[in-house]
Amino acid sequence: MCHDLDGVPPIPPVAGAAIDGQRIELEAADGNRFLAFDAQADDSPTRAGMVILPDVRGLHRFYEELALRFAERGIDAVATDYFGRTARSSDRGDHFTARAHVEQTRYETLMLDVNAARDHLVVRGTEAVFSIGFCFGGRLAFLTGTRPELGLSGVIGFYGPVVGPGLSGAPAPLDVVGEIDAPVLGLFGGADQGIPQESINAFGKALSGAGVDNELVSYPGAPHSFFDRKATEFADAADDAWRRVVEFVDHHTPTS
């Protein structure tokens, strides 16, 4: 698991922001119905929208809070769950065995779910849709840039592995850089032993070689899952990462 159940995004709420957030159910093209958390800014539809891809545990409170923080900043957001095909229950308590369910997920059907979340934002009137993911979801977020049916304006991965085999049969992002057709922002912990700096460097070199607009940032000494209010010693890294996320969305969202 990436973020603990009591983890909280290290983003201060915007005082006085008028937003609406609630759990909903979405339906993918194959008929799968899955949980999601929908957060809307008060002036919806907004120009920018965000599909949030959680860590390996699926939809839990950390990502619902993150969706609200996006909406407070005028970015409609929908955080998805991965387990509609095997665990319809909304219970994600301490006894939920996420690993057993994630091992039953498949890359192609997960992308159908991402497409349903993207469509949910587009139908609302959102003009530029982005994806952001964490760990397992970070790899998936990078890969959403290879999916022409999504037409994303940018993809953002927090500590998403870029090499080696992945769960669900997802390819390594490094192996498919030639198919990525969206700007990429990657944010990594410099002390994350699961994602060596060499792999990040190789990913950046390959992206640049393929002509993909990219920014990959490693924070020295920061571990995996540094983007958490509990990780107070890495607050500066988390603040910088959030600033980069907001600026990335602003830069790649059309102004007219």
Q: Report mean pLDDT, rounded to a whole number.
A: 92
Termini separation comes to: 40 Å
Percent of residues in beta strands = 15-25%
Biggest beta-sheet profile: 8 strands, mixed
- What structural category characterises the helix and strand content? alpha/beta
CATH architecture: 3-Layer(aba) Sandwich
Fraction of residues in helices?
Answer: 25-40%
Q: Please identify which CATH superfamily we are dealing with.
A: Alpha/Beta hydrolase fold, catalytic domain
Major sheet: order of its strands?
Answer: 1-2-4-3-5-6-7-8
The low-confidence parts are none
Describe the structure.
The chain has helices at residues 61-72, 98-102, 107-124, 136-144, 197-209, 235-251; strands at 19-27, 33-41, 48-53, 75-80, 128-134, 154-158, 184-189, 214-219. The protein is of the alpha/beta class. It has a single domain (19-251), classed as Alpha/Beta hydrolase fold, catalytic domain (Rossmann fold, 3-Layer(aba) Sandwich). The protein has an 8-stranded mixed β-sheet, sandwiched between helices. The longest helix is centred in the middle third of the chain and has 18 residues, at 107-124. It starts with 18 loop residues before the first strand and ends in a 5-residue tail after the last helix. The mean pLDDT is 92.
Strand and helix layout:
Layout (H helix, E strand, L loop, with lengths): L18 E9 L5 E9 L6 E6 L7 H12 L2 E6 L17 H5 L4 H18 L3 E7 L1 H9 L9 E5 L25 E6 L7 H13 L4 E6 L15 H17 L5
Parallel strand pairs: 3-4, 3-5, 5-6, 6-7, 7-8
Antiparallel strand pairs: 1-2, 2-4
